[in-house]
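Entry 14. Ran structure prediction on the chain below.
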Amino acid sequence: MAPVITSISPTQSHHAVPMTITGTGLSFVIRVNFGAGSVTPTSVTSTSVTCMIPELPAGQYYVSVTAGGQTSNSLPFF
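Output, structure tokens:
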């Protein structure tokens, strides 16, 4: 089953702030994608993933997760 993101929090912030991603099928997430860049999650459950927001230039990025070779839908982050 492909991972599905239903929400991210916060939707806008700066680096070194924790982000919580909620959804379904998240048990095996190994990577959180911010546009073309990615970070390793700090916590993973079947319905949530936590990571630290990486240092990014100002702008809009699409956040998705990768699990078991499948990438989820994406949501915008500013």
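The first strand starts at residue 4 and ends at 9. Will compare against last week's run tomorrow.
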